[in-house]
Structure formats: structure tokens, C-alpha cells
Write the C-alpha cells for this entry.
Amino acid sequence: MTETQVREPAGTPENSVLVNNDLLPTTKETAVWRTWDLFCLWMTSAHSIGSYGFAVGMLALGMTGWQTMLALFAGVLLLWLGSNLIGVAGQRVGVPFPVFARGAFGVFGANIPALLRALVAVFWYGIQTYLASTALIVLLLRVAPGLESWTTPSFLGLSALGWISFLVLWTVQLLIISYGMDIVRRASDFAGPVVWIGMIALAVWILGKADWSIDFGARSGAALSGGQTVSAFIGVAFLMVAFMAGPLVNYADFARFSPSKQAILRGNAWGIPFNETAFVVISIVISLATLKVYGKILSDPVELVAHVESNTIVIIAAALFAIATVGINVVLNFVSPSYDISNTAPKYISFRTGGIITAVLSILVMPWKLWANQDFIVYFLGGVGALMGPVFGILVVDYYLVRRRRTAVSELYSDVPQGSYYYSRGFNPRALIALLISGVVGVAVALVPDSQSVTALSWPAGALLGAGIMYALSAGSREPVR
């Protein structure tokens, strides 16, 4: 069967515009993502330059190293709970995120949350590719110092070496996604564990510089009062969830390939509470050691690698960080928009074509300029990203409380007015009203100026409000049985 051929789900009209081979439910033959694969998926999701920068950046809020680690651990537990809710639902229904969303938002209305998620992913895909290219540049310059003359910005704000590094990694990622989800699984299985080599080596090196002692009571920001500490603690916990809000929403893209609920729960348990906590701890340890050695915290591990005297260590560490960032990019920021864009016109856009569109858009947005513009990151990506909380709340309450875990899978592909999820012209007004109201509130909270403790509440505020409105508007509704 070729990529463009379609296996119609039972009961789905043959002329439905909502079906292509990539969006169909998982079969026993394709349900191959077991506990280890999901464990590696979450490892890959956590092991990136951005994740390290986020973790150590929380120290700037004024809490000590111990307090920051505990706050991040609380956020990890919330993320774990959310991943179980979405993961179990995604595995049971067996469809990718945009198709899963059809149950709540309508067969056409699902394009709204899907494209919102795709928009965030496209921008971050470009940014992460650029960040990975900076690690590759460090490696190349250490191997061939003569390339320094190629590092002067020359075209659209990027140097010749920058373009070469960016396009090499851009091509590698496109090749990975072009071979489908099984290659994504294999790439994740490799990229997730391998970065631990670099992190452990970096920790050993910087701890040696710090005479093997660090102060977990140290902080990089001003000391906080008791009330301020509690506020910062809550803020950091929810910021941890918000940081992973996009991947959390579209976790069904991966969970659907798992053969059992038990594999989901085990993979999530090892990948989130265990691994993400370990990554947070080693990130904080490295940052406290850099604070002692250099008098400041370096939020970019690539910058820290550049301080290493040994060429061998620099080359290995830079290569590992580049590999890790490519891994996280494919998993978090490539798979989702590929499915989401395909969902807009399934008859014409396959998963592979959606990936190509994503890759092209990631160049057109010139991510190196976006990364340099923190206002854009905060106001645009932060604002759109805040909408992931409401989407999460609506999906969870619709599946578990409104439909009570019952889904007529074949009806998710029906575009006839009599379809169970056609609602009103393909849109569910209840879900859209809930998204509009909770989305406005979530974005408003996220963009409160100069108030980190308030903006951190955008995810829980949006998620709880979206869930509450969806449940209230859906009271008494009758949903189809799977």
C-alpha cells in the first residue's frame, strides 16, 4: 500500500475528505512503541539546550538551588499526571492528536487547536534547529579554527558557517521525518540516552573546576521573603508544565502507537518523574558549579562547553548537544505540525508533505532573528503557547467526563451532517466558546508585564477555565458509544 492509498475505517463514507493513510487508527502491526520507546521519547523531550536553559533560568527568580529543584520536581509531577491523562486516552482511541481533537471540537473545528499547536511548533522547530547549529559551529571551529573567518554575518543576519550548519541539521531532520514514525522512534531511542554522556562529562569537568563542592543554598537572584518564596515556588512548578504544554497536548501522536495502557503508564513514569527530575538535578548542579567558578550562571551549555580546554571533550560534548537538540526537535516540533497540517486537507497533504511544509516554513521565519528578539518569544510565542492550557483542559474533560471515555472511532472520519462529531457544520460551538473565553483569560494572564509569579499561572488558569466551561456547556449532552 502506498502512502497516498487509504484504508477506510469501518462505517466511514468512502468519499470522506477527512481521511488519509497517515491519519488512520493504529493497528496491531504499527503499535510498536513500548515502555522503552516512550521512556526515550520523554528523555529526548527533556534533553535539550532549551530545557537546560529553562531549568537554570529558574534560579534567577531568587530561590536557592534546593528550592528550585523542589519546585521543578513539583512541576514534573503535574506534567506526569497530565501525560497519563492524554496518553491513556490517545492509546485507547489510537489516532493522532488532530483526529483525537475532532471528538471535542468537531471534525472541522479540530483544525483550530491543531493549527495553533502547529504554529507554535513551526517557530520552535526553526529556533531549536538554529540552537543545534550553534553547537555544531562550536565543534567545527574547534576542529578547524580557520573557519573563524566564516562566522561574520553575511546574508539575512546569518554567517556562511551559520547557514551551512543550519542547513545541514535542517536536512538531517527532514530526512528523518520523511521515513515516517518508525524512524522517529529509532531516532528518539538514540538521541534520548546519548545526551547523558555529555551531561555527565560536563558535570564532572565543571565540578572538578569547583573543587568538587557546591553550595545548594546559593542563588543568582536577590533573596526572597517567605511569601515571595512560596509565590516563586508555585510559579516555577507551573512554568515547568507550561514549558512542556505543547508536547503534552499532542502526546496522542505518540501514545497511539503503544500496544497497551500499561506501557504508557510505565514509559511515562520512567520518562518523567525519574528522568526529568534527574535532568533537572544535574542541570542545577552544573549551574551552581559555574556560579562558583565563573561568578555567574551560564544558561547555555554550549557556552560552557566553549570554556573547556580539551579539544576532545569539546568535540564530543558539542556533537552530543547537537544530536540531542535534533532529537527533541523531531519529536516535539516536527511530528506535531506534520500531522496538524495534514489534517487541514488529508486528501492532498500527507504526513510527509506536512513535514516538508513545516521544514520550509522554519527557514522562512528566520529563527536566528526570532531568538534574538525576546519580545517576540515572550509576547507572540508565549501568548499562543498559553492557549495550550485551554486546549488540554477541553480535551481531557470532554473525553473523561463528557463522553466518559467512549469514542465512535469511525465517526471521527465522517464528514456527513449526520456524523456524531459533525455538530454544527463540522464545529462544536461548546468547545469553541470554551476555548475563546479561557484562551483570552490565559493569554491575558501570560502577558501581564513584569510579573513572573502571575504569568506562571496562565497554564493552570486556562486549563481549569477551559475544562470548567466545556463541562458546564456540555451538561446533559449525549455522546456516541464506541
